[in-house]
Design brief:
Length: 339
């Protein structure tokens, strides 16, 4: 009975204001996250909230502000497959989650693996159940990003959309990173430098191949290209094809660490030593690279920072701020034993 009595007398915002010695309007601004309040008054309100156990009525707040304080991170089917085998997307989710936690916002994770799941996301956004959307990766043929943007909700995408659709996105210098890798291999005296390119319906795959081709052209060497889908098995299969077609190759730049791990296995099966016979460089700098045998020289991209930047961008957009339509983060080469 005591607990029921307490629950029927839920602390109010007026009680917070009285306890803190401020107006209700001031208390409301502090509780709703405004920083345009005197530091001492803000501290008094927060102390009062803690002392009397005030909990904001989120439903009422949403009706007034038309904000839910919820944001959705959409993982495409290709991203979802990588959860069991790679650390790129888990690290991206971690970065987004860190930033949302710091902002006091709720993060909802949704997987798109069927037309029905895509419809559910569109319905949720159309019903204004979230304040913004982040899309973890975009494929050229996927219409979801276009539809979300046209609904008027803030949208931020991981990676440049391959079809150049105008949407805010956070990317890395993929072509520059590929050029760094190839330049390293050529500079080390490798003569026949191949690449295992990633999927060509993803901007990262397109740009990394373009960087490889540009650096090979500058060095006066012919390109040697095989294609994978960013997955481990495809990397191994592509390496087998390269060895069959170009048995004298002595280096390979691989467009993802996961494909590179498959390529390393294929080289071991073929009796090729790494790096003595064939030098290998990957891309991503995930845990896969550190645990490879031998440990993988790779192009580092700041995955946590990508996630945090995506979250900051969508929060700013939801707050009515103008943001840069494209943010590109730097890459760098991390040296290990494979090259």
């Amino acid at each position: 009975m005591v607990d029921q009595a307490r629950s029927s007398h839920r602390p109010t915002l007026e009680a917070v204001a009285t306890r803190a010695g401020v107006s209700r309007a001031t208390a409301s601004r502090v509780v709703n996250g405004s920083t345009a309040v005197d530091v001492d008054k803000r501290a008094a309100v927060l102390r009062a909230v803690d002392e009397i156990g005030y909990v904001p009525n989120l439903a009422a707040r949403s009706l007034v502000t038309q904000r839910t304080d919820s944001y959705v991170l959409v993982l495409t089917e290709s991203a979802g497959r990588s959860f069991s085998d790679d650390t790129y997307f888990p690290s991206l989710v971690h970065g987004v989650s860190q930033q949302m936690d710091e902002a006091g916002k709720e993060l909802v994770l949704r997987m798109v693996n069927s037309p029905r799941s895509r419809d559910h996301i569109e319905q949720s956004v159309a019903g204004r159940h979230v304040d913004g959307v982040m899309v973890a990766s975009t494929l050229g043929a996927d219409p979801l990003t276009r539809r979300l943007v046209r609904m008027g909700v803030p949208v931020v995408v991981n990676g440049r959309p391959p079809d150049r659709f105008p949407v805010a996105h956070v990317d890395v210098a993929n072509a520059d990173g590929a050029r760094l890798a190839v330049r390293r291999l050529v500079g080390a005296g490798r003569r026949r430098v191949a690449t295992i390119a990633g999927a060509q319906d993803v901007a990262g795959g397109i740009d990394r191949l373009a960087g490889y081709r540009a650096e090979m052209a500058e060095s006066g060497r012919p390109p040697i290209v095989a294609f994978g889908d960013f997955g481990r098995e495809s990397g191994g299969a592509a390496m087998d094809r390269l060895l069959a077609d170009e048995p004298r190759l002595d280096a390979v730049f691989v467009a993802s660490d996961l494909m590179a791990s498959g390529a390393l296995r294929a080289l071991r099966r073929a009796g090729r030593r790494v790096p003595e016979d064939v030098a290998v460089i990957g891309f991503d700098d995930t845990a896969v690279a550190r645990c490879a045998e031998p440990p993988l020289t790779t192009v580092h991209q700041p995955i946590l920072d990508i996630g945090r930047t995506m979250a900051r961008q969508v929060l700013r957009m939801a707050g009515g701020e103008a943001v840069e339509p494209s943010i590109v983060l730097d890459t760098e080469l991390v040296f290990r034993e494979s090259a």
